[in-house]
Design brief:
The mean pLDDT is about 95. Helix 9 links the parallel strand 5 and strand 6. With about 475 residues, the chain is an alpha/beta fold. The radius of gyration is 24 Å and the shape is globular. The protein contains 14 helices and 12 strands. It starts with 12 loop residues before the first helix and ends with a helix. The protein has a 7-stranded mixed beta sheet, sandwiched between helices. A 5-stranded mixed beta sheet has the order 1-11-12-10-9. The chain is about 40% helix and about 15% strand. Helix 8 runs parallel beside helix 9. The structure holds pyridoxal-5'-phosphate (PLP). Pyridoxal-5'-phosphate binds next to helix 5. Pyridoxal-5'-phosphate (PLP) binds next to helix 5.
Amino acid sequence: MRFEDRDLAASEYATWLSSLNEPLPQRGRGAETTLQTLKQVVIPHGLRIGAPGFVGWVTTMPTVVPVAAALSASIAGAQRWWVQPFNFLEHLALEWLKELLGLPASSQGTFTSGGSTANLIALAAARQAACEQRGIDASRDGLAALVKPRLYASNQVHHVVIRAAAVLGLGRRALVQLPTDSALRLDAGALRDRLRRDKAEGCTPVAVVASAGTVNTGAIDPLPDILQVCRDEQVWLHVDGAYGGFGILDPEVAPLLQGLTEADSVAVDPHKWLAVPLGCGATFVRDRALLGRALTLEPAEYLEGAASHEETPGSQFDGLGYRFHDFNLEQSARSRGVTVWAALHEMGAEGMRERVTRHNAFARHLAGLVQSSPVLELLAPVTLSICCFRYVPADFQAGNGNPKVLDSLNREVLTRLHREHRHIPSSTEINGRFAIRACYINPRTTPSDVADLARAVERIGAETWARFADGQ
Ligand SMILES: Cc1ncc(COP(=O)(O)O)c(C=O)c1O
């Protein structure tokens, strides 16, 4: 796949679909044909999210060394347990992540398939804690005795948290979505008021979910204030840092993440800013034993013989190694830690710090270009590596003009960017306004890509507005 080539996934949809969509072969086509199909049809039509101008999502194409690590795990570490290097590297990578994020060394980490399951696992621990405080073992006995459970988050919380509430048997409606301030951060005062009111009404607060980098704008909830509320009200604090947790590496952002290290649980996604292959999140829970109880795996005879942790096993069946399956939803799982180990081994803490700081600087630079342009408008403060803005024609009448026209105009500008350019931002809605959203997480993006995006939006915006004006 070459980034200079056009993106063919959509334009050649009919072609690749007709090559691939066939009935189950009764006789195998053989390795050579299968590999050729991968090479000629599948890969060339895949997504180019690693292209330097792609700034659409919080995930990116992985870098080379972590991909090699993933491949090596498929070959030599197909199971992450048993005493073997992949099991050890799972452990080591979690230790390194704790150090990188400043999390307590005693907390229990576990790799997950991504941010969705990282949040789910953390909230399973929170649910267990809330229940145990009331004499209920949720993991053993279920939730029948839990009265009106509630989770609290801002209205910017990632929607996978809402689904987690459903999966945990709390129900989606157990999530109370609270208002945000002008910077789209959770209002800690509103949180305190609501917690007190709910408690007075007999509800059971299970957890507060603070966002350390919302997917929409990168806003970081006021962690120290929220931590204080959680301490006062004795509620579990979970921090969803799937996207922005690694922002702590940027000295300019680190003060905003004070409190992360005090949280009861933290979720981060190495498959975002660390650019390891997709399918790698991580959860850290302060109370190791509690996490174990929340995810209790009943003993199984076929594993018991191997349950001792032998440092120097005589055979591979002698020891399971680090028992990550005791702190996770999965039993068998691929080795994810080796990809994180490889990324950190290759780049070091300094390399990651440089990447995160550079990406945040890109977003601030874009915001500066937007603010100094007479035709661009910044729609949200820049905290991490996301910048949301729109095109506003100089002759648009702010007071009298129909604001919906700006939404349609910017939607069209974005469509044209996608079709005609190598700049691929995404979109979102901020306070009811359509926004062009650039998220810098891609290690291949350069400073000139940042400036080019602003100029391209100005140019396409002017052309599109001229057509709009003609048609009106
Ligand atoms: C803040 C936040 N939380 C959770 C998630 C879900 O993570 P995943 O897509 O890895 O399951 C995302 C993904 O964008 C996110 O940005």
